[in-house]
């Protein structure tokens, strides 16, 4: 133990880090069953969350769902388009731009992957009562806000 260290603060941050590592590894295993990388899952998920007609521009997808460069996003879209999970459409108001559309096979795949991940995530909190889950969520939101402030980042970085 380090002198003057808040043991509870260290325990909280160590637990969060360990949970994040475990969840990240488990997520990769689940996504591999669907033939998806994390960035591909994020892009398909962003399109699914957009709701009908399941379209979005690359600039709307990139910062919010797929934190990659524009070149990286092009690579993700290219891989998914080759698998016919998305398609590029001409932007309706800007002929130089494109819209990425989730195809029916893409929607089927992302919904299955989201369901599988939701089931795995539920196992993490299964031991907590509904009231404890609400309490944990509230406390973690407070910690996240504090971490964003302490590290000088916006909630979407």
Properties at a glance:
3-stranded antiparallel beta sheet; 157 residues; 6 helices; mainly alpha; elongated; Arc Repressor Mutant, subunit A
Protein model, in words:
The chain has 157 residues and is mostly helical. The protein has a domain at 34-123: Arc Repressor Mutant, subunit A (Orthogonal Bundle), CATH 1.10.10.10. Helices cover 66% and strands 8% of the residues. The chain is built from six helices and three strands; from the N terminus they run ααβααββαα. The chain has a three-stranded antiparallel sheet with strand order 1-3-2. The protein starts with 6 loop residues before the first helix and ends in a 6-residue tail after the last helix.
Question: Any chance you could write out the topology, listing elements then pairs?
Answer:
Elements: H1 7-33, H2 38-49, E1 55-56, H3 58-64, H4 70-82, E2 86-90, E3 98-102, H5 104-125, H6 130-151
Antiparallel strand pairs: 1-3, 2-3
Quick description:
With 157 residues, the chain is mostly helical. It contains 6 helices and 3 strands, in the order ααβααββαα.
- Any idea what the CATH architecture of the domain at 34-123 is? Orthogonal Bundle
H/E topology pattern: HHEHHEEHH
Class inferred from helices and paired strands: mainly alpha
Spatial order of the strands in the main sheet? 1-3-2
Question: Biggest β-sheet, characterized?
Answer: 3 strands, antiparallel
Low-confidence stretches: none
Task: Please indicate the percent range of residues in DSSP E strands (runs of 2 or more).
Answer: 5-15%
Shape: elongated
Question: Any idea of the CATH topology of the domain at 34-123?
Answer: Arc Repressor Mutant, subunit A
Helix content: 55-70%
